[in-house]
TrEMBL record:
InterPro entries: ACT_ThrD-II-like (IPR044561), Ser/Thr_Dehydratase (IPR050147), Thr_deHydtase_catblc (IPR005789), TrpB-like_PALP (IPR001926), TrpB-like_PALP_sf (IPR036052)
UniProt keyword annotation of Lyase present: yes
GO biological process: isoleucine biosynthetic process; L-serine catabolic process; L-threonine catabolic process
Cofactor(s) needed: pyridoxal 5'-phosphate
Highest taxon, organism lineage: Eukaryota
A Gene Ontology molecular function term of the record: L-serine ammonia-lyase activity
Designated name of the protein: L-serine deaminase
Family the UniProt entry places it in: Belongs to the serine/threonine dehydratase family.
Record organism: Euphydryas editha (Edith's checkerspot)
Keyword list, A-Z: Lyase, Pyridoxal phosphate
Gene3D superfamilies (UniProt xref): 3.40.50.1100
Length: 445
C-alpha cells in the first residue's frame, strides 16, 4: 500500500500512518482479521498456570509469547503488516527501526514472504538481536545511540531508497497483529479477571486492550513499564504522548521515549491502570521465572511478574490474572548480571567488609565462622594498604550466598558480635556497625 510511504513535512520526517494530528484507532474487526491472516505463520503459544500463584495469593497465568519463532510477540504485527503491503511495495522492500524484537520479527517474516528488509538498530541494541537479524537475511544498519536517532535515520533511508517504513509499535496493522495475543488469552483462560501487559511504545497494549475489552469489558487491563522509561505513564498524565528521558534499563525492549500516537489514542479509553516497576524487581522477576518456571525471559517480558512480586497490584488478590511474557531475547552476559542483581535484591547474594587480624589464622577463622552457619563464600579479597590504625589488621571484602533475608541477618548478627569493624553493603548508615575508635570512613564507600 502506498499509504506506508514516508514523505517530508517541512524540515522533519513524517509518517502518514502515525500522524499526531490524525491518530488512527484500531477496531476489534482489525484484530480478528489479523488473527485469520497470520494464523499459518505464527505460533499459538501456551498460557500456563504459574507455580508462583499460591505465594502471591492469586491465580497467575503466564502467556508465553517468548516462544514465538523469533522469541517475542513482535512477529505477529510484523507478519500482518507485511501481508497487507501492495505487490509493488513488497517488491521494493521494507525498512524499520527497532531495539531488536521488531527487527527480528520483521526480518524473519520478510524472509518467509520473500520481501527485502532493512532494519536500523541503535548501538545499545543487544548483540544477540543484531546477529539474529543478520541470520534472517536482513540488511542491518547500526546507527544512533537510542531509538529516536535510529528511527530518524530509518525514515531518511526510506525516503531516499523508496522503501516502505513500518513503525514497530504504532502502525495500525502492527497493533492489530499484536492484539491477536489477547484473543488467544481469552480462549485459553476464558474466566480471566485481569490482564497485565508490558508497555514500551504501546502497540501491544493497544491491540490486546482492543480485543479483550470488546469481548469481555469487565476484564481489568493494566499496562506495566519500567521506572527508567515511564513514557505511557507520563503520556496519560499529560493527556498526550510526550518525550521522556531514557535511562539505562534491564527492560531495553521497552525503552521507547515517546509512545505511539495511534497507540495512545486507542489505549486511553480502554486502560484501567498504568504501573511502573523498579529495576530491582525486574531483576528479581527474571530470576524467579528462571528458578520457578524454568523460563528465560528478557527484562521487558518480565515486568508484569515484577509488578505482582513488588506488591503493586494488591486489588487483584484472589483473582485470575494473566501476565504476558512478551520476549525472551536476552544476551547471555546480561542474563548473568540480571540473575546476580536479582540474588542481591533478595539478599541471597551478600557483600560485606570486615576488619580482622592479619596474624596467621585470622582470615581462616573468618571463613570457618561463615561456614558454620551454612553461608557459602563466592569471592574474597584482602585489603591492607588502606587500613588505618592497627598495622596488624587486614580488611576483608566477602561476597557470599545466603538462603535469604533471615539467613543474611543471622550472618550479620554473628559478624557484628565477633568483630569490631564491619559494614554490609546497601545499609544506608554505617552507624549500624559497632562504634570504633579507628577510622573506617572508606569502608562505607
Amino acid at each position: 500500500m502506498e499509504q506506508y510511504e514516508i514523505r517530508r513535512n517541512s524540515t522533519i520526517e513524517f509518517d502518514p500512518m502515525c500522524d499526531k494530528a490524525n491518530p488512527q484507532k484500531i477496531s476489534f474487526e482489525d484484530v480478528s482479521a489479523a488473527a485469520f491472516r497470520i494464523q499459518s505463520g505464527i505460533t499459538k503459544t501456551p498460557c500456563v498456570k504459574s507455580h508462583m500463584s499460591s505465594k502471591y495469593g492469586m491465580d497467575i497465568y503466564l502467556k508465553n509469547d517468548f516462544l514465538q519463532n523469533t522469541g517475542s510477540f513482535k512477529e505477529r504485527g510484523a507478519r500482518n503488516a507485511l501481508l497487507l503491503l501492495s505487490p509493488e511495495a513488497k517488491e521494493r522492500g521494507v525498512i524499520s527501526a527497532s531495539l531488536g524484537n521488531h527487527s527480528q520479527g520483521l526480518s524473519y517474516h520478510a524472509k518467509q514472504l520473500k520481501i527485502p528488509a532493512t532494519v536500523v538498530m541503535p548501538n545499545v541494541a543487544p548483540i544477540m538481536k543484531i546477529e539474529n537479524c543478520r541470520s534472517f537475511g536482513a540488511n542491518v544498519i547500526i546507527h544512533g545511540h537510542d531509538m529516536k536517532e535510529a528511527k530518524h535515520h530509518a525514515m531518511m533511508l526510506a525516503k531516499e531508497k523508496n522503501l516502505t517504513y513500518i513503525n514497530g509499535y504504532d502502525h495500525p496493522h502492527i497493533m492489530a497483529g499484536q492484539g491477536t495475543v489477547g484473543l488467544e488469552i481469552l480462549e485459553q483462560v476464558p474466566d480471566i479477571d485481569a490482564l497485565l501487559v508490558p508497555v514500551g511504545g504501546g502497540g501491544l497494549l493497544a491491540g490486546v486492550a482492543t480485543a479483550v475489552k470488546h469481548l469481555k469489558p469487565h476484564v481489568l487491563v493494566y499496562g506495566v513499564e519500567t521506572e527508567k522509561c515511564p513514557s505511557m505513564e507520563v503520556a496519560l498524565m499529560k493527556d498526550e504522548p510526550v518525550s521522556v528521558e531514557i535511562r539505562s534499563t534491564l527492560a531495553d525492549g521497552l525503552a521507547v521515549p515517546t509512545v505511539g500516537y495511534n497507540a495512545f489514542a486507542t489505549i486511553k479509553p480502554l486502560i484501567d491502570r498504568m504501573i511502573s516497576v523498579h529495576e530491582d524487581w525486574i531483576a528479581r522477576a527474571i530470576l524467579r521465572l528462571v528458578e520457578q518456571e524454568k523460563f528465560v525471559v528478557e527484562g521487558g517480558g518480565a515486568v508484569c511478574v515484577a509488578a505482582i512480586m513488588a506488591g503493586l497490584v494488591p486489588e487483584l488478590a484472589g483473582k485470575k490474572v494473566v501476565c504476558i511474557l512478551s520476549g525472551g531475547n536476552i544476551d547471555t552476559t546480561i542474563l548473568g548480571r540480571c540473575l546476580e542483581r536479582g540474588l542481591a535484591a533478595e539478599q541471597r547474594l551478600v557483600k560485606f567488609k570486615v576488619t580482622v587480624s592479619d596474624r596467621p589464622g585470622g582470615i581462616a577463622e573468618l571463613c570457618k565462622l561463615i561456614a558454620s552457619i551454612g553461608v557459602s563464600i563466592k569471592d574474597i579479597m584482602q585489603e591492607r594498604a588502606w587500613v588505618y590504625g592497627d598495622i596488624f589488621s587486614v580488611r576483608v571484602k566477602v561476597v557470599c550466598e545466603t538462603r535469604g533475608p533471615e539467613h543474611m541477618n543471622e550472618l550479620r548478627s554473628m559478624i557484628s558480635n565477633t568483630y569490631r569493624e564491619w559494614y554490609f553493603s546497601k545499609e544506608s548508615d554505617i552507624s549500624n556497625r559497632r562504634p570504633s575508635t579507628d577510622s573506617l570512613d572508606d569502608v562505607s564507600h
